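sorry for the late reply, my laptop died twice this morning and i had to redo everyting from scratch. anyway the thing you sent over, i finally got around to it. pasting the sequence first so we're on the same page, its 339 residues, then the predicted structure underneath. double check i copied it right bc i was rushing
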Amino acid sequence: MKRLAITLGGAGAEPAAFVRLAQEAEQAGFAVVGAGDAADDSIALLGAISQVTQRVGLRTSVALLGRSPAQLALAAATLQRLSGGRFRLGIGPGSQQRNEGWHGIPYQRMVVRTEEYLRTVRAALAASPAAPAQTSGHFYQLDRFTTGRPPLPVAVDLAANGPRMVQLAGMLADAVLVDQPGPPAVVFARVAPLVRQGEVAAGRPAGSVELSIAVRVAISRDRAEAIAAARADLCYHLAFPYNRALLATLGYLEEAERLEHAATRGTLGQAVAGLPDAAVEQLSLCGTAEEVRAGIGRWFDYFSEVRVNPPTWYQPASDLVARYRTVIATFADLATSPH
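ok and here's the structure:
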């Protein structure tokens, strides 16, 4: 099944505004609304959204590792009951700064830590009064954990971009949440084989893991304005080495080398500002509402879920809600299946 999704968040709006946007997304036919741990708490925001929506799927996009596995399982079980079974638990390690600076979690051995975290969360979600969860790991432990209620099934998705994390998603997740800017065929070719390797390693059937892609959509009647917004947003995404490497794959060897050099010198923003328009358009979806609506099908050719989001990094905070409304209106009634 194909799903159209949107992830809400950003410091440019109050939580109540995102609750209203979630209602508008549901009315427009979106299949999934997500919220991440950034300016707001994903669990708290989705709890509010769950009470004013009826059909749209809900997902943490993503919940960071700052909560203990037991606490996250409690939150997920609560949201699943509040939403009537519409919730998906999206987990992701996030950046080094957020792990170490926000939560005091060392970034070393993050793939190993994330694997143990996922396994512990799944054990907690499956616990019941008759069969409490009991685990003992290097990083996390559960001792007779139970919510006191019969368990409800909760899909567990993993945000993954680096090769080892993508393989881990193939081993343990229900969906892999990819956030790599680039042409859909190229990103798919980088991700799908790794997911399959993870499925094989875990003895899972091929296709056990859904592929979900985030697409930054810059919409304006002025094409140059749309490209400028997408270029500014790329300053965040190209801070990650695996995203910078994609430029070389697309033939922008000099630009990739310049970005790599700039990343070590703290001048990445200046280097991204020099990216050719053609490169920006390959890494995102830019143009008028009509153009981006017509172009989104390229991603659905490869991914079962497409998460469309406006540029949020290095954009004016004052018009964040307006940018979200433009995206919602552009893709209204384009969702092809319910959650």
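The radius of gyration is 20 Å.
thats about all i looked at so far, will dig more tmrw
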